[in-house]
Design brief:
Elements lengths: L1 E5 L11 H8 L2 H19 L5 H13 L4 H15 L6 H12 L3 E9 H11 L2 E5 L1 E4 L2 E6 L6 H11 L7 E6 L5 H6 L2 E4 L2 E2 L6
Parallel strand pairs: 1-2, 1-6, 2-3, 6-7
Antiparallel strand pairs: 4-5, 7-8
Helix pairs in contact: 2-3, 4-6
């Protein structure tokens, strides 16, 4: 059996899905407060002075702290069924299904958050490792269970969850430098559709 590891945003999709989901689930108060508090951090991120793995948890905390799990999950269902199909790359969906038909284990490994990714992956019958939102007493705390699933943490999460030695071949797909550590785990890697080499970093 082979193992196929797929990043989600930008690899399976044509664009970032995290930001749109956050905005679509934040009420007007949170949007205004977020715009006021986060605009300096977002500017730093645009200037490449603050990495996305540092900014994302801050945005997530502001957007989801104290929100009802049932409400967000219901919104995630609609997001998966109405929006995600419009941004999924047909060639990557075909590649996922090709791996499945070959009997390979397919895992999405993403820094995006769990509410909608769980639904999407379950619908395709594939596994998921992602930035999982922490739940307590029916509410999201706004924190991640195991941190932002990007960069080295993405690779470590794969190794801590999956016994890579049990697969004859590992194949990985990514599109940003946050995927490099995961791509290096694989025997065969693709970066933005082209073969990836550790020398490309």
């Amino acid at each position: 059996m082979k193992l196929a590891l797929f990043d989600f945003d930008g690899t399976i999709t044509t664009r970032d899905t995290y930001t749109k989901f956050v905005i679509s689930n934040a009420n007007i108060f949170r949007l205004i407060l977020g715009g006021f508090l986060l605009s300096p951090l977002i500017l730093l991120n645009k200037l490449k002075l603050m990495p996305s793995p540092v900014l994302r948890p801050v945005i997530t905390k502001l957007a989801f702290k104290g929100t009802k799990v049932d409400d967000i999950n219901q919104s995630a269902q609609e997001y998966v069924h109405k929006y995600l199909p419009t941004v999924i790359r047909p060639n990557m969906l075909h590649q996922i299904k090709k791996h499945q038909e070959s009997g390979d284990r397919v895992v999405v490994v993403s820094a995006s958050i769990s509410p909608y990714l769980k639904i999407w992956c379950k619908g395709l019958g594939i596994d998921l490792i992602c930035s999982e939102l922490e739940e307590k007493d029916g509410y999201f705390t706004g924190s991640y269970v195991n941190g932002d699933c990007s960069g080295q943490r993405k690779a470590d999460s794969v190794k801590n969850t999956i016994n890579l030695d049990s697969f004859e071949q590992v194949i990985a797909y990514g599109d940003t430098k946050e995927d490099h550590a995961m791509l290096k785990l694989a025997h065969e890697s693709y970066f933005r559709g082209k073969p990836f080499s550790a020398n490309d970093c």
